[in-house]
Specification:
Elements lengths: L10 H19 L25 H5 L14 H29 L2 H25 L3 H16 L8 H4 L9 H7 L7 E4 L3 E4 H17 L8 H17 L13 H18 L1
Antiparallel strand pairs: 1-2
Helix pairs in contact: 1-8, 1-9, 3-9, 4-5, 7-8, 7-10
């Protein structure tokens, strides 16, 4: 998964950066998630576009051979995997359940749209860095449309107008310029990644924090609402649950799916 405080030169800046990094990891690295406006349900059944890659393509070994995935820190990674599962069970899942119980589905959908629209800032910048002018134009048009006609992004008129959507990050940008993924990593709270994408995540959150499109650095009170909501909404929109895949080799399965997804993300 993009999984999550205002930009200041002191400690609040670091807290905010940590939250953004968690967001980008959950949204960009959610290897087994289906993101829908209310955070659950089948994309196909709810009328959303089919996934970019079929299950057959993702599960095949022609992209990433699970036997040769570089995982030199696998003992630490497995321990962190269990730690993340405990955090999920003790903290995040109860918060998500409360969130869904208190807020009606249309409001949750609007909140998800808002955060997705902010993600288009990152996406547009990375498409430009990748030298893809047509896609950059579509992403910028989508951002402009939803930020204006969509009332700050809470609505999604761009989809109704047929404006293309993209999801790009600096890890993909590095990959498109030939950077290898490097060893697999499982980060506390942040989830699965690899060395290349971890660097990319850091660049994305630093750049977004510097840009500060919502000017939260000047309104720390709003930041206190924005970032917790960001954490909860991102987790609510990620269908993956630890130790519920039914596989006795779940760690290896998640590693395979994540590494495959990221290589497909670079190649698309």
């Amino acid at each position: 998964m993009q999984d999550l405080s205002g930009l200041r030169p002191q400690a609040p800046r670091a807290a905010r950066g940590l939250a953004l990094l968690l967001l980008f990891t959950l949204t960009a690295g959610g290897c087994a998630s289906v993101r829908t406006p209310d955070g659950y349900g089948s994309a196909a059944a709810d009328g959303f576009p089919e996934p970019v890659f079929s299950a057959r393509r993702v599960l095949s070994d022609d992209v990433v051979d699970p036997l040769i995935v570089r995982d030199p820190w696998h003992r630490t990674n497995r321990w962190v995997y269990g730690l993340n599962a405990s955090i999920d069970q003790v903290a995040l899942n109860p918060l998500v359940a409360f969130y869904r119980r208190v807020l009606p589905a249309p409001l949750r959908s609007g909140i998800t749209n808002f955060f997705d629209n902010l993600d288009m800032v990152r996406t547009t910048a990375n498409l430009a860095l990748q030298g893809r002018p047509r896609a950059t134009g579509w992403a910028a048009l989508r951002l402009l449309t939803n930020s204006t006609l969509g009332i700050g992004g809470f609505l999604d008129p761009a989809s109704r107008f047929g404006i293309n959507t993209y999801n790009e990050d600096f890890g993909q940008t590095l990959g498109r310029y030939g950077a290898a993924p490097g060893p697999y990593l499982m980060l506390p709270l942040f989830g699965p990644t690899n060395v290349r994408d971890a660097i990319g995540l850091g660049v994305d959150f630093l750049w977004f924090g510097f840009l500060d499109p919502l000017e939260l650095s000047d309104n720390p009170g709003w930041g206190g609402l924005y970032y917790p909501l960001l954490v909860i909404d991102t987790r609510a929109a990620t269908a993956f649950q630890y130790f519920e895949t039914g596989s006795p080799f779940e760690y290896e399965l998640v590693r395979k799916l994540f590494m495959t997804k990221r290589e497909l993300d670079v190649a698309k």
